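Supplementary notes for students who missed Thursday's class. We covered one full example, reproduced here. Read the sequence, then the structure, then the short commentary at the end.
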Amino acid sequence: MSNYVLAHDVSILLYHYVCPAKYRRVIFDDSVDKVLIQTCKEISKRYEINIVEIGTDGDYLHFLIQSIPRLAPRKIVRIIKSITAKEIYRLCPCVKEKLWGGNLWTAGYFVGTVGKYGNEKQIQNYVRSQGKEYTQMYRGQLKFFE
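Structure (token representation):
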């Protein structure tokens, strides 16, 4: 479960990552999952990364991760992918037989933010309702991404 992170600031940043195995090979089974879970526990102890959930579908993984604002989403996925690949190759040599070229993960990944207190529409309405006079005055000019 996610909690507030207190370190001079207060944050609750949750990310959903999807990391496919190289060539979309089905490499995750019970033995690999055990190594993955233990490695992720060690990553959580060493880095300011709380791995809330891990889900596998045989050829890719889903992670629900909470971290601090100082760690960019790209850095988080690099840490997780590099350390888990090294440990899985070391402790589950059968995985190397299914993959070639030395890479466990594809170069790409998906990351999205997860809201604990509301979805995009709820937060948009909340922000929009703040400072009514100011927002009424500038509402038409604040279209950055449309």
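Commentary. The CA atoms of residues 81 and 131 lie 43 Å apart. Helices lie at 30-46, 73-91, 94-98, 120-128, 132-138. If anything here is unclear, bring it to office hours.
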